[in-house]
Amino acid sequence: MGGREWCHRELYPFSSVIAVDSITVGVTTLFKSANSRGMSTYVFLVYSYAIASLLLLPAPFFSLKSRELPPLGLVMVAKIGLLGLLGGLSQVLGYAGVSMSSPTLGSAISNLTPALTFIFAILFRSK
Asked: What are phi and psi of 65, to 5 degrees?
């Protein structure tokens, strides 16, 4: 039993971080290759969102959580819309930066996100 708990507590989060970082570097390199051959940033984003939607669509059917949905009010819809807008804008700006530089620089900048989050938490006196 101790080994399984250790895997859930230590190994799975570490493996997830490594997998997400590897996928991010791969997609950034793929974007730079497609962009250098003439593909637009917006077309690449539409393709990547379509593939991500197809891959994530069956996830709720395999979830072991309850089937009861929380209420969807106007505030929640506004938060989801703002998050989608900011996320899409950050990807457009990030890919525009990668198209003007190298995927190595894009990966290095994306690894600075935790440090910037920590600095903002100190500046705004958050937890």
From this structure: -80, 175
